[in-house]
UniProtKB/TrEMBL annotation:
Signal peptide: none annotated. Residues 10-143 form the UspA domain. This is Universal stress protein. Belongs to the universal stress protein A family. It holds the Pfam family Usp.
Amino acid sequence: MTGAEHGPGRIVVGVDGSRSSREALRWAVRQAEATGAHVHAVIGWSIPVTYGPMPVPQLWTDWSGIARSTLDEALRATLGDRACEVKAEVVEGGAALVLLEAARDADLLVVGSRGHGGFAGLLLGSVAQHVATHARCPVVVVHDREEP
């Protein structure tokens, strides 16, 4: 059952602090304002994988806190004084899997075309590509305004 069948719709948007994820958040908020939907902004985090000995400070880094700060900053910078209802959530796990789980019963999933990882020249990042091919709901991939 989708959100349209049980009240206002639900739009899940992935946020990682990148420019394209902020554009995705802006797009999701505008769509929610136009349709009366609720926005569920999600950021996933996991301890970075390294090869070789891991520096001890990396083990004790507050990754959840860093993710929460990134999400809060994106919301402050993007929402301003908009009245749209936004639920913000920090979830441990890889970005693609976290977003797919969050969007399992959503009406729409919105992601930026590229996050902080990968190669700058790619037109579509690995997370955007993964969720676009595996999500149970429609997916909107939003490009950064400065992308070609």
